């Protein structure tokens, strides 16, 4: 297959149609690279097209990661694979049969013959940070509501207002310092 055939393949056209923006996301880049014979020494599909192999040594030496994924580190590339829920199927570093640096990754929606499924390959993101941010916002809203309720329901004396205002400030400061945004 020459480079012209690669560029005009049906799977590539299907992939281009499934993109919603001009920005190419990690799964789409990886899919294109796996389907480009130029890179078969570093990344290649298995025979059935439901997994791909990665030569850990050769991919670092090639400069492929830096050109296409803005990182020169294999560890960062593999961390990104895990972030998109790719599973390390076989780690051949522990095997005597194959090369020590060949690993095998799989994802149920990352299949050679079905580029339309790529939209289902999503980054898991940092859920803990998001959860902490939501907790901080909820705590802040609760503190404000509590302070407002106390201000409304309390008798209006200078001592009570001072206490309520001090309590509100302490509550906001405590929650804000525990859950920075």
Automatic annotation (TrEMBL):
Subcellular compartments: Nucleus
Name of the protein this chain belongs to: HSF-type DNA-binding-domain-containing protein
Organism in which the protein naturally occurs: Dimargaris cristalligena
Main localization, broad class: nucleus
Superkingdom of origin organism: Eukaryota
Keyword Nucleus annotated: yes
Family, per entry: Belongs to the HSF family.
Keywords: DNA-binding, Nucleus
PANTHER family from the UniProt entry: HEAT SHOCK TRANSCRIPTION FACTOR, HSF-TYPE DNA-BINDING DOMAIN-CONTAINING PROTEIN
A Pfam match: HSF_DNA-bind
Domain HSF-type DNA-binding stretches: 22-124
SMART domains noted in UniProt: HSF
GO cellular component: nucleus
InterPro entries (UniProt xref): HSF_DNA-bd, WH-like_DNA-bd_sf, WH_DNA-bd_sf
Keyword Chaperone: no
GO molecular function: DNA-binding transcription factor activity; sequence-specific DNA binding
């Amino acid at each position: 297959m020459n480079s012209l055939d690669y560029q005009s393949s049906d799977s590539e056209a299907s992939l281009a149609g499934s993109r919603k923006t001009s920005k190419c996301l990690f799964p789409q880049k990886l899919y294109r690279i796996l389907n480009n014979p130029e890179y078969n020494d570093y990344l290649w599909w298995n025979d059935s097209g439901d997994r791909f192999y990665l030569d850990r040594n050769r991919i670092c030496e090639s400069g492929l990661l830096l050109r296409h994924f803005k990182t020169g580190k294999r560890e960062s590339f593999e961390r990104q694979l895990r972030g998109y829920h790719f599973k390390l199927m076989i780690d051949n570093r522990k095997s005597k049969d194959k090369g020590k640096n060949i690993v095998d990754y799989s994802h149920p929606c990352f299949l050679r013959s079905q580029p339309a499924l790529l939209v289902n390959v999503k980054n898991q993101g940092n859920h803990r940070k998001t959860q902490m941010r939501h907790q901080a916002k909820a705590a802040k809203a609760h503190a404000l509501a509590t302070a407002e309720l106390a201000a409304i329901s309390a008798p209006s004396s200078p001592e009570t207002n001072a206490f309520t205002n001090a309590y509100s400030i302490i509550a906001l400061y405590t929650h804000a310092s525990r859950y920075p945004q």
